[in-house]
Design goal:
Blueprint (H helix, E strand, L loop, with lengths): L2 H26 L10 H15 L5 E16 L5 E8 L4 E7 L14 E9 L6 E3 L13 E4 L2 E3 L1
């Protein structure tokens, strides 16, 4: 193989590796900037779908969905209000909202719309979003829920 051909193949291989890495970083990068109205929910759904398909965790995500099921509170350790949201993509995510650190969403029922910003953790059922509250230690991005025009954090 000629030196020129070897250099071209090496250059193409390097370019392909850079493109693959850039794509992976785009999926893994936390999205903590404030997108324009509507944009965050749409891009959050795409990020959640990709995170679920690729088994990624630890992503800061923003989206909204419709309450599919309201579950009993988890009272072990820190108390969490739990409910399942169905996103525009059809994916469902469990929201685990720490009610020791943030107010409960009173009157929440199936069919209600809830927006959220929190940390996504993968599981085989669609994933869990937690950290939907302020971080009292200041080490983690503050999360929130939006319900009936009010932000809960």
């Amino acid at each position: 193989m000629s030196m020129r051909r070897r250099a071209v193949i090496l250059g193409l291989t390097f370019a392909a590796a850079v493109l693959v890495l850039a794509g992976a970083l785009a999926v893994l990068a936390p999205s903590v900037s404030a997108p324009t109205a509507g944009e965050g929910a749409r891009s959050g759904v795409v990020t959640l779908r990709e995170a679920y398909q690729q088994h990624h965790s630890g992503l800061q995500v923003e989206a909204r969905g419709e309450v599919d099921h309201v579950l009993p509170d988890d009272d072990e350790g820190s108390r969490h209000q739990r409910f399942i949201l169905r996103l525009a993509s059809g994916q469902t995510v469990l929201i685990a909202h720490n009610i020791d650190l943030a107010p409960r969403l009173e009157g929440l029922q199936a069919g209600d719309t809830v927006g959220f910003f929190g940390e996504y953790e993968w599981n085989s059922k669609g994933g869990v979003v937690h950290w939907t509250h302020r971080d009292p230690g200041g080490d983690h991005p503050d999360g929130w829920l939006e319900y009936h025009g009010q932000r809960y954090w």
